[in-house]
Amino acid sequence: IPCCANYNHFRLSTETDKIDARISLGIPTDAFVLGYLGSIGKMYMLDKFFQLFVIATKNRANCHAVLITPDTDQLKPLMNSHLAHNLLERIHIKSATYDQVPNLLPAMDVMVSFITSTYARMGASPTKMAESFASGIPVVTNSGVGDIQEIVDQLDGGWVVDSLSENGLMETVGNLDIISAKGGKRLRNVSRPILGLDFAAKSYRSVYKKLV
Question: How far is the C-alpha of 149 from the C-alpha of 160, rounded, in Å?
Answer without folding.
Answer: 7
